[in-house]
Structures are given as structure tokens and as C-alpha cells.
Amino acid sequence: MDKLKSQNDELQKLAVDLNACDLSGGPSLNHERSRRKVENTNREFWYFIKSELNKLKQLAEETLRNIDGNDEWRLKELQDLGDLVFKRLDYLQNPKDCSTAKKIVCNLHKGCGYGCQLHHVTYCLIVAYATQRTLILESKGWRYASQGWETVYLPLSNTCTDRSGSSIKHWGAPSVIENIQVVELPIVDSMNPRPLFMPLSVPADLAERLSRVHGDPSVWWIGQMVRYLTRPQPELADDLKRTKHRLEFKSPIVGVHVRRTDKVGVEAAFHSIDEYMIHVQEYFDKREMIEPISQRRVYLATDEPSLLTEAREKYPTYIFISDNEISKSAALGTRYTDASLRGVIVDIHFLSLSDYLVCTFSSQVCRVAYEVMQTLRSDAANNFYSLDDVYYFGGQNAHNMVALENYKAKHSKEIDLEVGDLVGIAGNHWDGYSKGANRRSGRSGLYPSYKVENKVMVAEMPTYPEADKAS
What we know:
GO molecular function, one term: glycoprotein 6-alpha-L-fucosyltransferase activity
Protein name: Alpha-(1,6)-fucosyltransferase
Low-confidence stretches: none
Family: Belongs to the glycosyltransferase 23 family.
CATH topology of the largest domain: Rossmann fold
Subcellular location: Golgi apparatus, Golgi stack membrane
CATH class of the largest domain: Alpha Beta
Pfam families: FUT8_N_cat, SH3_9
Order of helices and strands: HHHEHEEHEEHHHEHEHEHHEHEEEEEEEH
Shape: globular
Number of strands: 16
Number of helices: 14
CATH architecture of the largest domain: 3-Layer(aba) Sandwich
Helix content: 40-55%
């Protein structure tokens, strides 16, 4: 406060100096010096305030997380929950008798990119889990690898890969498909009816434990599905290890994903490398308040080959780790090739291993990396900065926030909030305000982001006691 008063007194004195200037024949030297001093004082004072707020934020985050000494417990609890889900999936996917098992059939021929297709299979696995059916993935002729999913990932089952059954039907109401052995799934956008267990819901029997230890349970839950689906074949696992050694990938490191080519102007706006690096610098600045950092490393994943050179020229104090061959393979003409498939897998792998992620959540590759990140460490719900969208899962049910405090709109673009209101979020403006629709009042508009929190959606799903016995 003393510094704030001192700065205010100086600004007032400078304002007097400005008024005293003789401007006949143009501004005097004193006038120009005083004007520049006012500008500089304002700028430097803003830097000071921003720095102090960042220090307070970092101190609060570290103190709140570690003050009770339970960080190790939280990590173990998440690991235990992850192991439990993995065992349930393994039990579901390996029935004793495939000929009588109930099945969900999922086709990988959806016409979109890798991240979109992976999320399609993820949705299929969630439906399989929630309906207690073994997932049969039909992936031969996959646009990325004609021999299918098993080209790079382990089979989803060791005992049941055959779609045959006594009866078969397309997805429908529970009463229609309950006694059908084989159910075929559409793409998520065509699913009708839409069950409550769809993202962003989490299983009811895990919800309380998960909510205690993770800031965004739905992302963690989806990440467990992705983790099971993308278990690498031995050759791929060895390749990832060699690549990590070759690139000298090590912590601390920030993963930056810059998507250009076909996305710009269609699904996302253009963002310069400078916009990403602002948040990279903020992350390292905050981390250096706790520990010294000798090298600031960035893993740069992009489909723009020239961006690596630009980044290194503009930010010579940073070490940029990237594989330009991956960037070249992501070009439109070579996107659906073996090299391109390897490239996107490598990028997602190292982005997810990063300590922090700066990207655009309009990109499914970025969202996949964020999902996988949740399976690799303690609560990483806030280990990201998105330049555009909030996190979402394509085809999800409504994403609701719940109001923690009352708020009275200050102008026509804002909406009122009452404690307990559900607000369907449309986007975070990343300036302290979000946009959404108040389910109670029916009004849409802006509201302070800190006055709400995610509403954890819970859905009844099977508990798999046989699998749990092994836990």
C-alpha cells in the first residue's frame, strides 16, 4: 500500500508539471519529459502489480496444495483409482465366452483426423463400459493405417474380437436393445437417445473419491479411456523411448501445440507464436519463484514447418525441442500416412508428458494430450492455458457450472446469478469473465468466472465387482 500511495503522489505531481508547461510554439522539453515519465510510470507500475499478483497466486496455489501434507496421498489415490478403472476395462474387454458376450460394435471409418477418430473410439468405450458390453473395434482400412488399430496399439481384447452374435441392432432406447446381443454404434452426433452416462458424466461409484482428489473429474475419466485404448505396441513403445532420448526431452518443460493449415479460418483463429510464448514465460516465471531453472525448455508441436525457425530466432533464451519431419508429415497432402500417424502419436505423447500445456482447445490433438496428462501425474486439471475454447468433448451432454455466489449484472451484457444456479458455459473469455446461459432465468450473457465452479455430473454405471475383487 505504501508503494501504491507513493506512485499515486508521483502521478499527481507529474500531472501538475504537465499543466504548467508552456505549449506556445510546440511542447517544451519539460512537457515531453513529463509525458514520457507518466507513461513509463504507469507501465512499470502495471508490471509491478502484475508481478505481485502472480507471486500471490503462485504462493497460494503451492501453500493450499501442500499445507496439509497430503499431496502424496492424493497422488496415490489417483493411481489407485486409475488402476481400478483399468482392471474393470480389462475384465470387460476379455469375456470368458465371446460367443455369448454382449457387444458394442464401433467402426473407425469416421471421416476426420486422428484426434477426432480417437475421441470417436473413446466414446464407444464409454458406452461399452456403461452398458457392460465388450467393445468390438472394426478398424481394417483405417485411413492412417490400412491394417488397423493394432498397427500401433495393443488389441482391445485378447479373447473377443468377433462381432458375431444371435441378434444385432443399431443403437436405440434401453428397452429396445436390452436383450440384443450385438449393438452397432453411430457417430456420437447421431446418437439417439442420448444417455446420461455420456461425457461429461463420471461413474456414480467413483464420483466422491474422484472429486476429492481431482479438479476436473470428467477429464480424468475420459483420460482413463484414452489410456486403455492407446497402450502402445512394443515397437511403438521402443520408438517413443528412443525419441525421448534423442530429443533430450526432460523437465521442466512446457508443451506448445500450434495448429495451422486447414484449421485456421475454419475451426480456429490464427494465433502467432508470441501469443503462446506469453503464457510459457508466465509459467516459468512462476516456477522460478519456487526453484531455480537453468534452462527453459519448450516442446513445440505444429503442422507449420517454418515455425520452429521463427520461434528459435524470436526467443533465443529458450530451448525449443521439435521434430520438423513431424511438422512436414502433418501437411494436407501427407496427413494420412504411416509417417503422419507416428508424428501425431509422438506429439501427443510428449505434449502429455510436459509440465504445462499451452495450446488451443479447439484442436482435438491438444485436448487428447490434456486428457492423457491427467493419467500421468497428480491433479493436473489446471496445467494448461488455452488460447480459445474451454475443454470439451465432442458430442458431450450439457456442460454446466454451478454458482457459488450471488452476482448482480452491471450492464445489459451481463447476467444475474444466485447461489446454486446452473449455468451452461459457452466459453471463457480468459479476462475474468465467462459467457453462458443461466438455466433458471433463461438469460445468456457474461458473468465473473470465479463465482462459479464445474458441476460434476454423475451417472449410474456398472460397478464390476468381479474385477474389483482383484484390487
